[in-house]
Every structure is written in C-alpha cells, then in structure tokens.
Predict the 3D structure of the following.
Amino acid sequence: HGVYGVGKTSLATQLFTHAVKGETFTDGYLWYRVGQGDQTSNVLEWIGAQFGDQTVAQARNANAKINALRDLLAERDNLLLGLDEVNDSDVARAVIEAAGNCTVVLNGRKALGLSDKSKEHELKPLTTDEATRLFVSLINRSLAEVDAADLQKIGEICEKMGNLPLAIKLTALKHAEGESLVTIQERLEIA
C-alpha cells in the first residue's frame, strides 16, 4: 500500500509477471483492477466467472459467495490472483477467505488491517538521491554524464514532485523529449 504515484501497481505487476513467467502457478493466474464502486460481491463474481462458473453469482449473500468461490478454487492451489487498487478491507478479506490456498497479491492506497491474514508492505516515496538516480536513468544517462548544476536541478524537480516514481517518470520523459530542466522547474513553480 502507499500513496498514488509511489509505484504500487508497477511493483505488483512486476512481481505478478515474474511469478507467471516462473511457471510456478500451474493452475493459471488472474489480474483484476478493482473499480472504485466495486462491491465485494462484484469482485467475487468476476473471479468465479473467469472459470465459466455461475455459482458464485447465484449465491444469495456475501458469505454464500465466499463459500461458493472457495469451493470453486479448492482444486486450484497453484492459482495466482492479483487485485489492483483494493481499498476496501471487506473486499480484500473476502477474496483472501475465498482463495483458500491460492496465492493472492493485493495492491491499494491504504493498509487494510489484515495482518492476521496477510503480509502488508508500505511503499514510501524515494529519497531525493534515489529519485535523482531514477530520473537520470530514465533519460538514458549515467550520473557521471550529468553536470553538477543539472543534477541539482533534477534533485529539486524530484523534491517538488514529492519524489514519487510516477511523476518522475513522466517528467523525465518530457525532458528526454527536449523540454529543458529550467522549463520543467518553471512549470512546477506555477503548479
């Protein structure tokens, strides 16, 4: 979990992709981006529907849906479930309960208070040094190739953006496309 732009989805998708490529999950994998209005039942029903099964959708209440999905997944211990932007602890708890022995990766902005059922990790913004190195690497240069004055400007730009990887990536792209560091700094002063 962590603030917007800190790299939660990027990290989760990298972990997910690495796990899928490792062929550890012989029962397959599912990735779902939870919408802001998605209720627990919507998420459980979507997972069930991916197996061509309607028993989860036909279940009458949340507990019945959890049980129906648990039964459906009981023979799929090597299934990887990834849920992006989970910000409702009820959704997370229901999926974890229904998943049985499946592996579940959850990503969201806040801690969900599920330490009894999962491991939670908070992603924090980069330090200014880390952010500067990221910016420089994204413009395909090494630190040695960037003069001290530009490194200072890059550090100031990164700090102005809260050292958030997503903002740094977008800004480095603008710089790589030809926008000067001074222009970027001026835009950040206005914003």
Q: What stands out?
A: The first helix runs from residue 8 to 21. The CA atoms of residues 82 and 105 lie 5 Å apart.
